[in-house]
User: Fold these one by one.
Assistant:
Number 1:
Amino acid sequence: MLSEFELYLGSVERRLHLRPEQERDILVELRDHLQERADDYRQQGMNPKLAFKQAVEDMGVPDDVARRMYDIHSGNSWRDAILAATPHLTLALLFAMHLWTRTAWVVVIVGMLALVSLQGWRRTKSMWLYPWLSYTLAIPILSSLAAMGAVAYGVWSLVQNGHAPLGIPYYILFGLYAPFALYITASMASKVVRRDWLLASLTATPLPVLMGWLLYIQDEGRGFGESPQQIGQTDGSTALVFLALAITTAVFLRVSQRLFRILLLITATPILSFFAYLTFIGSPGLLSLIVIIALCAVLLLGPALLDARASQSSPTGPPAFSRQ
Amino acid sequence: MHRKELLKGSTESLLLAVLEGGPHYGYQLAKEMEKRSSGYFRFKEGTLYPALHRLEKANLLEGKWETAASGQQRRYYHVTAQGLEALANMMDEWRSFSRAVNLVIQPELA
């Protein structure tokens, strides 16, 4: 059976949402304080069980302690805010200068995003990393969706016309690639949710815009290297959307109140996604509007539900930390 | 209720004042505060650490993990030069405030 301390510290830990080393330091400090307070109560003649209980009560509600600590420690410097906004700014620049039609530029930028994400994930899990991760994760997400779409279209063509546009080995390859890419994405997403569901929501923020843009490109039958004049028609507006995403991200990092961050994402993401869809498909009807809002709700609040489920399945897990 | 409100407004000055005498770790600090105020100031301890961490973020304190005589690692808080300066300002302000309050509530002593 877990002690009062372990239950209490477990509750604080689940709500801290800070970097692992920050959480460890805070929890060690609180644990030592609780231990000393309980020892004092015992020396005053209190029975051990009551002494533990009283020490925990003296410390206050775990939610409040964790929220105060989060507000103090989760703020970021301007440097980190700019670093976090950089991937969105890069995309804005890519569209503003119509560079996305040049394969070499796209390859260099995608490579840079992936490299920084990988290094950032290995060395630090600071908040600035997550917008970079957005685009790195967008690659397997969008490519697996494209692979599944190609397979579905191939099957449909085969049934309707008796032949598929591509050879069967390609479809087998697509069919194998899609679940593999989704597995990698899901595994990474689960790690981000475990760190903090709000950071998972931040990571998901540009996805509706990217998906809308890819659908627009596909719908119009346009592709890389094809009629750049026509393709570039929406580039100015798309650049503005990514610029707005960069500003939203910088504000998210600079403010430290969790509630403000949640409200910021819940408000900015649907508005920016709606503006992007307005650019890509003209005036969207009610159905499109509902689809955009539903997509944003799933991407932003899905991580919170996953986190809540994970907490329910292990509500009493003791925190594992030590400085010795 | 009044005591809670007064403590809330004075927490930072009280913590800096105790730490001016030398580094303390959290629990030691809470005990010292209780002792010096004859039990009048008893922190809801969940507010003590956020206050210490806030002061540290503001560069008024510096927290260092040090090994205590028992061999246990503890986080000792040291006042920085900036913290000492802030404390001096807070003390001046407090003296002026307390003098003014006394003049209002005990005019016969003026």
Note: Chain A has a mean pLDDT of 85.
Number 2:
Amino acid sequence: MQQLPLEGIRVLELTTGAAGPTCARVLCEFGAEVIRVETRLRGDGHRGEDPKKWNKKPDFVKLHRGKKSFTVNMKLDKGRELVKQLAKKCDVLVENYGLGVLERWGLDYPQLKELNPSCILVRVKGLGCTGPHAADLTWGPNVGNIMGGTYLWNYPGATTATAEPRTQHPDFMGGVTGAFAVVLALMQRKKIGQGQWIDNAQLEIGASLLGPRYLEYSVNGREPGPEGNRSLVAAPYGAYRCKGDDRWCAIAVYTQEEWEKFSRLLEHSGLDRNGQFTTHLERVRRREELDRWVEMWTSQRDAYEVMEKLQGIGVCAAVVQDVEDQFTRDAQYAARGFLVKLKEPEAGVVVTEGIPVRLSETPGRVRGAAPLMGEHTQEIARDLLGLSDAEIKTLEQEGVLT
Amino acid sequence: MKTNGTAPLSGYRVLDLAGPLAFHCVKLLADMGADVVKVEPPGGDPARHVPPFKDDMPHAEKSLYFLHYNTNKRGITLNLDAREGRSIFLQLARSAHVVVETFRPGHMDELGLGYGALSGTNPGLVMASLTPFGQTGPWRDYKATDIAGLALSNLMVMTGEPGEPPLQAPGEVAYGMASTYGAFGVAVALYHRENGGKGQHIDVSMHECGAHIAGYFIPQYGATGAKPSRASRKGEETDLYDPYPAKNGYVRIFIIPSEQWRRLVDWMGRPEAIAGPEFEKMEHRRQHPEPVLRTITEFCKRHTKEELYEEGQKRRISVTPINTAREFMESAHTKARHLFLEMEHPAVGKYLHYGPVPRFSETPGRVTRTAPLIGEHNEEIYCGELGFSKKDLITLGAAGVI
């Protein structure tokens, strides 16, 4: 098999949740060897609390496919010492525990630097490592609250708190950004002859996408509010009801040329617009009436038919897909082989998302199943830490390797 | 943070042909120190006409959207539709390390500026093509802006009120995720190059990146057939994602570990309705949402969201306020981390710029200049680097080349 670009890079992962695991997973897909430190004393959030299900969670597979699992009790001096020994042999340490945990374990940057000056530490934290709220307990979903994203994710003039769905995009974007930063730091290591640490705050990474909204306040002094699907530059714009139960197609018409093709298509199917909506300004100003006219056409048709017909004339249109559609009707995912089946020893077949960035010379690869709890503990203790079988057995009996 | 090095990407030249899909990608590269030269068509990038604007006055130099994404770059004008323009671009590409582009697949080849042509004279070149659907597959030529990426990702089908149109997210998160993966791909390709490899072409699909925003629905669907929608997510969120009304807004209380639940119950004074040990289990709370919602709501209404945030976090409970953009900008945490930097732009005046993240301890990113005016660096680049005379620029300008 072709060599992967990050082959030879060893990553130690001390994480929980999703952002830290995502950072390490992305590095793994491009060749890094990732050793995830965990413990049987307590299932990680995505393994769950029930030991019988530790190796059966599809969420866990998504986050940890291709990694190794090393189980150790970090409450014991001996456990922490073993992990410090591992850190000496790693190029990168990825962590996202609450502020203070890494410090307590003796692995925050000043201490890590003593152990291994060339190691790179990335701290994929909610609010970062400095500032009055650095120690806050947060998860991806409540990071969006702080930045204003949750408030803005709503219908215009809404009286509810938010329409934000059950998602955690700062987790995933924060994780991939952390991987980006690690690769840059690996390049820098050659130039400056040492590692460094990266304060990779999910909050600040996610909030960057709201930059224009912040400028609205700092430049114009106006507090931005929720805009829903409204656009000042496109009409029709938004999600349009199609045939069937809760079926919709997103449509966005930006230019006069697109509008002319679009309106001609609808008129050919027998919809008269009585000379209305001829100018961009009229379409934006009378968007509600325009939307009703468009829905007279879309609501009679299957969402995919709407998408295909409109794309056929060069208009941006996309089915509001649910996850079943992604499996069964998304011709593009199918053609590019995007959904990847993994055979897990205990969970059975798990389908996960493939790698959405394809490099022509050094492509990444989904490297295999997620590790069983502690699957690689003995292997790592023996091969990396140089422990004998007898020593490993003793450490197991003492509850250190567990 | 101290610094004893330069920014992570200093010394790398990026030619920026990106549209909005890759704006965040190039911003990351620019903020990390790359020398980014934005190549705009004569008359300027269409994104100069995207709102919001300074004082709401549409003007090519007053788009705050453009300003956020194009700080830290130099800007030149060049008409790639003109033969002379293409030949100038080829000259520029000879000394570049990275080209980022978002044209429809095949367009760069048609211009004679495809990866093969550009790498012919510069085999180390990294070209990142970020497109709605990637370079291959049946949908490759389809048009899709951010809303279409969200629609296909299954995020939109979960957003909003049941029966109402699905809602897009604020902040162009489908573009944001594609951009993040794009920047990661560029970093890996540069790393490979630094290790003696050659350049390469990177294919990023927004549609595939979108699947990585939405959470765990793809692996879960494979395992359970669960198909979340706006209707199904109602009622499954008790104390997980529900916003609770405070005196002056909302907070979100996001509880996974049972010890956080116990701390919350203690904080509320152990109200009888939910003090029983059975409520420590998330499943039980979801099956009995009424007393949970009612009790937490009554408690939160007696406090401001700031009080709930401060005291909740002090008690190690994951409480966060649902902030507006202004509240985020003005928060003590944001200020302590100097996230917003005071800058000045010739047409916009003083403004607060969103600073570079993530933060490197030894080789931090930097902000060196505000966004370029149209063609601001034509003389610097064309005369200073390519050897054209000032008179040549007059000729090229009149011919519509620059």
Note: The first helix of chain A runs from residue 19 to 29.
Number 3:
Amino acid sequence: MKKALILAGLFLVSSLAVFGQGYDAQPADALVFPIGVAGTVYSDMELGVRGGTLNVPNIEDPRGWNNHTAHETSTTWFTNRMHRGLLNLDHISGAVVIDFAKSYEISDDGLVLTFHLREDIKWSDGTLITADDVLFTFNDVITNEDVDCNSRDGMILPDGTFPVCEKVDDYTVTFTLSTIYRPILNQLAFNLMPKHKLAEFVHKLNPDVPVGTFNETWTLDTPLTELVGNGPYLVTDYQVNVSVTMERNPYYYGYDPAGTQLPYYDKVVNHIVANQDVSMLKFRNGEVDVYGIRPEDIAVLLPESAAKGYSVMITDLANYGTTWILVNQDIGLPDGTNDEKRDLYRNVEFREALAHLLDKDTMVQNVLNGLGGPQWTGVSLPSPFYAGRDEYGGPITENDAVTFEYDPALAASKLDALGVVDADGDGWRDLPSGEPLTITINANDNTIRIAYCLIMQDDFRAVGLNANFQVVDFNTLVGDLFASTGDIILLGLTGGDEPNSGKNVYTSCGSLHAYRYSACEDPDEVDLRIDELMDLGANTFDLDEAFGYYKEYQQLLAHQLGYIYLCQPTFLYAHYDFVGNGFMASPTSTPAGNNGLLTELCFDKRL
Amino acid sequence: MKRNGLRALGLATCAVVLVSLIGFAVDVNYIVANELIEEISKAAGLALVGDYLSTDPEELEELAETGRTPGIRLAADRALFILNGREMELFEMDDDALLELAKEGDQDAANMWFFKNRSDYKVPTAIEEYLLTVEADTLAIAAGKLLGGFYVPGSPIGAKTEDELVELAKNGESLGLRVAAATALTAIWNADQPLTIDETRTEILSVTLVYPELALAYQGYLAYLFSLEL
């Protein structure tokens, strides 16, 4: 008994070494999430209670605990819960919002961003967080060439410079830009690191340590008691290939409107499993509480959901990313061939005819098992800038969607009007000159893309277009893309919230302006306007104004049909019903998502 | 369709027991120990698997083999499945080994084979075609369970109405189709809870001799109702 008491005492001391005691009362500068507050995107959520453990599946071990040297999501899954930055994505809407900054201003000229920090907020070990930590993270870690920092490139402004980060006082910092560039706000959401724990490992601050020492800091060999953060959780236990346990940070500054300090769950246990099927088995057996499902899982999960007490979320929310075909408007240009075909491909009415031959409903039903929807713009649907919204971050209404309905008869009449008719009676439409027209459709060996192509091929042929689908390896396909060879290519792009990140795709001189690279030297009016709109959208901090510019560019692109968008699978998720607020899972965040946003708002309804 | 005389006698006896139980609190342990109707007994057994997990494995082995009722044998068998880590054992087997076990009558192996190969059956028609040539009842049942997931209302493709499912459970052309309908019906009833325990037992009595898969659907639902009583 005595030994047990001694051990308990040691454990207590050990725990206090990791965590401070927490706040005596809610700090004046706490970040309050409007959970359950009418008129906010949090209105449907429930206020929770503290306690319990959230069990989540994961298929990879972390590779370290250092947020800024991590290159893999298996590590950032944890560091994104250990650290927070000045700004963040709104946990529900995904919009850029304040986080550790309680407010910020932008100077009239748009070049100076002043951030006011929350005062009297502490790191998990009880040390105050100040402007020095912001400067340390930005000046000594992120922009320090000695540090192998993954996010440094994102901080570079269009003119190649970094913002200049300076301290005004203990709770005020400024970032001075050489040029107005609103997308930098996304980058300024970088996670903060504790100077008092890490400065000694940065060579420029401590010449006694070799260059690059920081890259070897907070590795898997580091005692977990050394880790300090300002986010909702800290790693407290790691069993290789088995699990990682995170426990609440007593000094986290997030609260709910009832004054309950977040996160609600005391612990998050990340169970490391071999693959997604094992995750699913564990979910079905109740060993993990949430699961990111795939279309093929639904038939297994749905029948047992009521008896086991979990919900299968089959939503109409599209995931991030795009899938498209491009009609190569520069075909033959590099070698001076295919002049007539090129003229035809450059004719937007021809591309409109093709767009009317895309049976997106069949693609969704037969390829995505009904779990998807059509796309018409290059900005991902979850983005607050998606043009199907009426305002920045507003609900998707598709009031202004530019769509081309599946209408083979209309497509045929458009082809007729272009003179693309069967001139020689062989059953296939020819070029206006009477020369044969053959169209090759290429995609890489991807089951979904192949299925899309086969549907397209059938519909093209049904109206007399001699289309032939061929699978080519991915590298060849990308090579064709960059070399402006090939007819029609089907590929996809990842997506995010900020349209400017697609500047390399949509501006006339962009490296991925693959449907017509020649636009760089010979831009038309639409190209020029899109170039202008992309800059206008980036060069204002007024999000509504930026939304207006980005909406116009998306509509122009949709009319232009450079990239012709196909379909995107929808968001699917499953969670046990006792995971309070788990139903708010979305493409923005899930209870077990990499960004860790929704985790802190979920709770155990059984308590 | 045919049932032997002993089962019919059990049915009659149980009907008397059922009437006598109406109006009393449900004692699932009593039911599993005394119920003679197979589906009701098994429903009780399924509800009690969690309780059986604390039983000594050797005793469970014996109960699974020689337990007095089908419900006891099923509860013990399912508890052993969990305690022995049989699921992961099956998961780690290759497809051929699973198929071999399935053809020898191992339903768990058949279920696991379908779980691991479900990506090949993304649409209900693919499973319906498979059922036309399936070689073993275990595989037909496993396929039927997966197909049932497509038939459930709310499924993006293949959903059927309750009436359609009842008809299919009664008169579906193959075992797999009837199991599929039964699986979906259980899911619907679990969500809607349209019948009480007593009503469900009565329904089982009315169909067990004629429509075994429909009785199976009620069995699954009754197991859920019993679990709510624990």
Note: The longest helix of chain A spans residues 543-560.
